[in-house]
Hints:
Order of helices and strands: HHEHEHEEHHHEEHH
Number of domains: 1
Oligomer: single chain
Strand order of the largest sheet: 1-2-3-4
CATH topology: Diaminopimelate Epimerase, Chain A, domain 1
Distance between the termini: 100 Å
CATH architecture: Roll
Amino acid sequence: MKKGLFYLLIFTSFFLFYPTTYASTVTYPRTEEDFLVPADVQVTESNKMDILNTPAVNASEKLYDFAELFSDSEEGDLIRKIQEYSVLSRYDLAIVTTNNLNGFVIGDYTNNFYDYNDFQNEGIILVIYIGGLDPQIYMGTSALPTSELQKIYSDARIHQTLAYIYKDIKDAKYYNAVDNYIKIVKGFFELDNDKQYVVDGNGNLVKQIPWIEIVILASTLSFIIVILLINRLKKYNVVQYSDNIETKLDPTSIRVSITKDEQVDRVLSKAK
Length: 272
């Protein structure tokens, strides 16, 4: 009996403490007695209704599939990739699907969802809304304008990212869209931490070469070219000297029998 209770305790503990691998659809009721906002959010008359109309969630869950777009296996895979990104970047990443914007336009819904739940100060969020005639998507960032996160996820990059994944969303390939989204935001982070890529004025990703590297490269190439030219000149100016020509040649073994025309041809062909 004791052994059975032991195994039951282990089994129960596994489900209580093992981290979830499924998307969340759970929200908590906000009231004027408890707005369920982070400690740094001040509730005022101007934002009170926005807070009450924003879903309250557990900020540790990261994937909120209110529209139920993903299978269980897809949810588990996406959550694993979100966690990998967060560990790599130390930024938060939240993804929300919904068919109800609670009266907000999608941009306000996105910003409120991140700001009024207990996410990190710096992070990014993607909202996919499929309740209208056409799906809508929005990507928000939370950080100071001068922060590294804002430099990584500039307006140009956000536009490129959303334009890339929108076709899959419109074709109802939701897993492919979100999977690609995570790959792209992770890729931008890795590129910028390599410090050799920048976004130009047209929003294109280009490799940046510091001037000092250009100078060193040009100097090295010039040195190599000079050395090669010197070696090539030496090759065509080698002269062998002998104090006694007779010690180098055996007159009895040499027969010279060429015409003038043959000699000219040979000289020309050698020059070639």
